[in-house]
């Protein structure tokens, strides 16, 4: 269903595989721009394990149900029947409000691994049982755990009490959040948490729906942590080393810092030994993610206006249609304006 | 020295299991020792305790990554931090760093191929090695299903390290295998402790059914009536999931699948749920069970036949570790033996694949000097699975000085030979299942391992006659109501209340 909805958003203007990249969280300029343009940033990177062949299976089953109609080999339009199905489904199973794949895709998994490990360790400590199997075995996590226990400056009992308070407060703060979805997954002393599939089954949800709900809660927690840092010191400590305010790829970040030092695009391209078009991709990515980023050094105000008007009149968001309306603008300029337009909603 | 006191001090056990004390004493007296202990009777203690009592480092050679990982975790769980595993998971940096710190460790696990590395051997030479352990020592045998060519070099490596005190451990080995072991390790005097592979508290049953469908139905019947907990083994990952879903549809809620293709986090959770009694039944591939110390497993069912009697013994050996009566049931339907043959063939590279690799390497001669770093390319052009690739790589590494063409001729011979051995193993297993001759199943297994059956076993096997009702549920299963679930209470249980105080 979520795939059908994504296809509705892109309304045949991209291939189905752009959805795959989006759900997988591929960090290409094209995918990032698509996510913003089609307002699908919330589901970015929410199904990193979705495979091409599984997507093909889903698509063919959706076609069989007549929810989709092909318009070319790899593009499909959602049918009237499909739209009704989407409405019916999502009115009963809404996508969690707090889902924000784009903003949190880098921290979600880490946050969960660390939080669930900390909960387990505290539970074991409080029960004075040092013989147990940690649910996460990665060495970095074990190393990090030592850091956490040191930085928290609390006794084991206090740690448990405070973490309990923070979690309860956080989970109760919002009426739309169902804490069961989260708490059933936690492991403690002599009680092992459920897997994703088991939790979904107990809560009578489909696995994919549960998955989004669960991510929604994690994103909600991350959001609330960020907004109210002082109220959730322990939860914040979980991601203290990973906080970056603007989600950018490493390579775009480098380009941004060169831009801030006053280098031109050509100059950056030579310094970084990258193609001009790659640097342009970076600039578009930055424009998408930094509301404060000024695009006027790359395109004058007048041209911006012309392009925005063209975007409004164009029936499709495919670049080539827009370009037909403003032949004197290049793709880079159109993408920049699109990036800004998408952000203003 | 009172070994019982030491046992309690280091492991909090009050008594030894059969064989452990004798083996440990032999080692402490300075004798090279060969020990065959059946699965599930605490082999690792035989090197762990001496490790604590002797000065210096214990080197453990272990062929299976997952097994090694399990043993490392067990030691760590027991509070031992001076443990390290050298295997392909380690990055070069980590490896070099660990090599400089070697003397800080007590237990050093190594995969056999690590012993080929000069830097590793040089590092080990600087240590005082108190004990050199070869785990799964039967892998040294060319007649075994699990033959590892690298194991043949163990004697050489051992010599380089100055012939330290040696312990060879295995669960199952025929006389033939034992002799090969002694020869390749260059042992001239040794003690041996051979314990029967028999587990008299496990009844052996083979049931023949007509079809796949009937098999599934029979499984439902069996798991409904048998006293749990239990494990059902499959040769296919997909079927483990299918069957656990099928059983849940039939009203059994506490069933889950387990296989190597699952995400790590889920694997740990399922394993731990089973250990803590939150699940009664696991539908698993053979990946499940290693390193799981659950004492009270009451039954093991085989949906598919294992590829050799040794694996069968190992898998059923996970039942009844507490010594209480347990049952192993193998379900056979005609034609089942096809699957193991297919699996055996798929484990080895095919002729076409070997040829493709050969042609490719002839054209890219520079790759032969460092095969491992061209893994991706070589596997892509030949479509080798990881297991298949490893066989080719390991074989070629040993033959470097020969012409490429000769290397590949020998490789082809080697692969054919391996296939023959595997096929022979499968036909032995098949014969054990389907033999027309009415004879005690236990006796036949023991004969295979050159043992004579000495004790009479009640409810021995289907050939001797068996009463399955003995293994039926004593009290009917009560369904735990989930309706009272309260997340805040659950969170409090985990983070706040000390449950231990309630138990006292």
Q: Strands, helices and their partners?
A:
The complex is a heterodimer of chains A (345) and B (504).
Chain A: H1 2-10, H2 16-24, H3 29-37, H4 52-64, E1 68-72, E2 75-78, H5 80-92, H6 101-104, H7 108-126, H8 139-151, H9 156-172, H10 180-183, H11 196-202, H12 207-227, H13 233-239, H14 250-260, H15 265-271, H16 276-289, H17 301-313, H18 319-325, H19 331-344
Antiparallel strand pairs in A: 1-2
Chain B: H1 3-11, H2 20-28, E1 33-36, H3 45-53, E2 57-61, H4 65-77, E3 83-86, H5 92-100, E4 107-110, H6 118-125, E5 129-134, H7 154-160, E6 166-170, H8 175-185, E7 191-194, E8 202-208, H9 212-225, E9 230-233, H10 237-249, E10 255-258, H11 264-275, E11 281-284, E12 299-302, H12 309-316, E13 326-332, H13 338-347, H14 351-363, H15 375-382, H16 386-397, H17 404-434, H18 441-448, H19 487-495, H20 499-503
Parallel strand pairs in B: 1-6, 1-7, 2-4, 2-5, 3-4, 5-6, 8-13, 9-11, 9-12, 10-11, 12-13
Helix pairs in contact in B: 2-3, 13-17, 14-15, 14-17
Pfam family, one (chain B): Helicase_C
Domain Helicase C-terminal (chain B): 218-377
InterPro entries (chain B): DEAD/DEAH_box_helicase_dom, DNA/RNA_helicase_DEAH_CS, DNA_helicase_ATP-dep_RecQ, Helicase_ATP-bd, Helicase_C-like, P-loop_NTPase, RecQ_Zn-bd, WH-like_DNA-bd_sf
What does this structure look like?
The complex is a heterodimer of chains A (345) and B (504). Chain A has 345 residues and is an all-alpha fold. Chain A is 61% helix and 3% strand. A two-stranded antiparallel sheet of chain A has the order 1-2. The longest helix of chain A has 21 residues. The mean pLDDT of chain A is 86. The C terminus of chain B is likely disordered. With 504 residues, chain B is an alpha/beta fold. In chain B, the strands form 2 sheets. A 7-stranded parallel β-sheet of chain B has the order 3-4-2-5-6-1-7, with helices on one face. Chain B has a 6-stranded parallel β-sheet with strand order 8-13-12-9-11-10, sandwiched between helices. Chain B is built from 20 helices and 13 strands. The longest helix of chain B is centred in the last third of the chain and has 31 residues. The chains are: A mainly alpha (345), B alpha/beta (504). At the A-B interface, helix 7, helix 9, helix 10 and helix 11 of A face helix 11 and helix 19 of B. Chain B: Pfam families: DEAD, Helicase_C, RecQ_Zn_bind. Chain B: GO terms for molecular function: DNA helicase activity; hydrolase activity.
